[in-house]
């Protein structure tokens, strides 16, 4: 069954928000050195322009489900995009590093709401039988973001100035708001009770501390001082789970995990996220450290990876709607393993590298779309705000863990030379991909079909 024009319009508008948040996160990293120099700050301080955004994004995620129920997913998406666009203008106008970091925190808080609110809108608009197709549209559109971000960021910094890293968001955000006001359903607000502020603090602090600790652990190859944020993150999330299971009106409904199909799908999506983000960290380092490529050239190398996903995701969505998520996810994760092993075995030439990157991108499309669809199809429409919040949070944690594992192995083995170090790192990424394949097997055991059951 083809998507009707109204659904296509909703999907097109939702893609704007997702693409903006992904592009912004990757574009700004290219300009940190320039920002530090122009604002008279050190590079270590300028790193908080990136860290503040990512941590704020993690903080706002736990509140998304409650807010979507309270005011409607459509209204939440519009408010989040408006906040993101306004914060982009504040970032561009910031005269000091402190004000820039503060504006980036506001921008990250808004960005953390855009993707789950958009997924909730799409899920409620199409129902379970066409969910694969519409989620694939979102996946294919945003898959090129991590690859295009460094290229666009480098061109902006070299040709214009760093404020334009944020100013480019303004016309896109304004166009998205105008289109959203015209085509997005606002959603029906439902009684939610009082916001569980204690639960929100525990979840926000726990999730952001854990993501920061795991990410920084990989980058620093396991510095002891990072044990504190890891411990704070684990404790905060543990207390959040305990409180949520006992609260009469919890921030998010963790009882969704009692459904075997939903639990299997979220586990698979988390493990697939680890494999995806591990590769997004490792491949740029391969091109820059071993092959001496610039940031812009590295981004161009990775465009094929994103295009492979963009082409494969719609097909994966149609197959998921027709055959169910389990078999499609197993095929995709097996493809991840098969396209990672060659990088660990030999030093590939340019043509072989590009062919494998395209194939690996296609495998990601087949691996990532089915578990997401299966998770959302396993719940009722009124439970989608909770499901999108939980899945996005778990994918963020999984991505941080995957990146940290690969980075730790690479840093520990670099003294032996770049080739042995990258071989070890790619074997680690292969192991992560094997775990993702095991997660896909959980979908088979859970007997998750096209409708999630």
UniProtKB/TrEMBL annotation:
Residue spans crossing the bilayer: 49-69, 76-95, 101-122, 134-156, 162-185, 197-220, 226-241, 262-287, 293-316, 328-345, 357-379, 400-418, 424-444
InterPro entries, sorted: EmrB-like (IPR004638), MFS (IPR011701), MFS_dom (IPR020846), MFS_trans_sf (IPR036259)
PROSITE patterns: MFS (PS50850)
Membrane protein topology class: Multi-pass membrane protein
Domain Major facilitator superfamily (MFS) profile, chain residue ranges per copy: 10-448
Coiled coil: none
Localization terms from the record: Cell membrane
The entry's keywords: Cell membrane, Membrane, Transmembrane, Transmembrane helix, Transport
Family indicated by similarity: Belongs to the major facilitator superfamily. EmrB family.
Protein name (record): DHA2 family efflux MFS transporter permease subunit
Organism listed in the record: Pseudonocardia lutea
Lineage: Bacteria, Bacillati, Actinomycetota, Actinomycetes, Pseudonocardiales
């Amino acid at each position: 069954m083809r998507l009707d024009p109204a659904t296509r319009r909703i999907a097109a508008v939702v893609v704007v928000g997702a693409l903006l948040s992904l592009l912004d996160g990757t574009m700004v990293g290219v300009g940190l050195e320039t920002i530090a120099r122009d604002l008279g700050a050190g590079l270590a301080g300028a790193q908080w322009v990136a860290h503040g955004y990512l941590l704020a994004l993690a903080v706002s995620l736990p509140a998304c489900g409650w807010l979507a129920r309270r005011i409607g997913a459509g209204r939440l998406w519009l408010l989040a995009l408006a906040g993101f666009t306004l914060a982009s203008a504040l970032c561009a106008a910031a005269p000091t590093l402190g004000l820039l970091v503060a504006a980036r925190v506001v921008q990250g808080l808004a960005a953390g709401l855009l993707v789950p609110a958009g997924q909730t809108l799409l899920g409620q608009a199409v129902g379970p039988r066409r969910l694969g197709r519409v989620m694939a549209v979102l996946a294919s559109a945003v898959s090129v973001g991590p690859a295009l971000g460094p290229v666009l960021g480098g061109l902006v910094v070299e040709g214009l100035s760093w404020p334009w890293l944020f100013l480019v968001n303004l016309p896109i955000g304004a166009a998205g708001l105008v289109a959203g006001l015209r085509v997005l359903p606002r959603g029906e607000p439902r009684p939610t009770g009082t916001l569980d502020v204690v639960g929100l603090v525990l979840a926000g602090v726990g999730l952001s501390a854990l993501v920061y600790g795991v990410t920084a652990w990989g980058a620093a190859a396991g510095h002891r001082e990072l044990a504190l944020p890891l411990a704070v993150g684990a404790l905060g999330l543990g207390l959040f789970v305990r409180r949520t299971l006992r609260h009469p009106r919890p921030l998010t409904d963790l009882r969704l995990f009692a459904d075997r199909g939903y639990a299997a799908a979220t586990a698979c999506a988390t493990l697939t996220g680890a494999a995806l983000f591990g590769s997004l960290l490792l491949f740029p380092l391969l091109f820059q450290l071993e092959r001496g490529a610039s940031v812009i050239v590295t981004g161009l190398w990775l465009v094929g990876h994103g295009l492979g996903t963009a082409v494969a995701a719609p097909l994966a969505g149609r197959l998921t709607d027709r055959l169910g998520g389990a078999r499609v996810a197993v095929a995709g994760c097996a493809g991840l393993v098969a396209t990672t092993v060659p990088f660990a075995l030999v030093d590939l030439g340019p043509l072989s590298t590009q062919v494998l990157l395209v194939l690996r991108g296609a495998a990601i499309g087949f691996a990532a779309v089915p578990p997401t669809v299966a998770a959302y199809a396993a719940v009722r429409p009124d439970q989608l705000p909770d499901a999108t919040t939980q899945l996005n949070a778990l994918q963020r944690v999984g991505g941080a863990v995957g990146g940290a594992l690969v980075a730790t192995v690479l840093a520990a083995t670099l003294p032996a030379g770049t080739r042995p170090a990258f071989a070890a790192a790619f074997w680690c990424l292969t192991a992560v991909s094997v775990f993702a394949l095991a997660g896909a097997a959980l979908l088979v055991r859970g007997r998750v079909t096209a409708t999630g059951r």
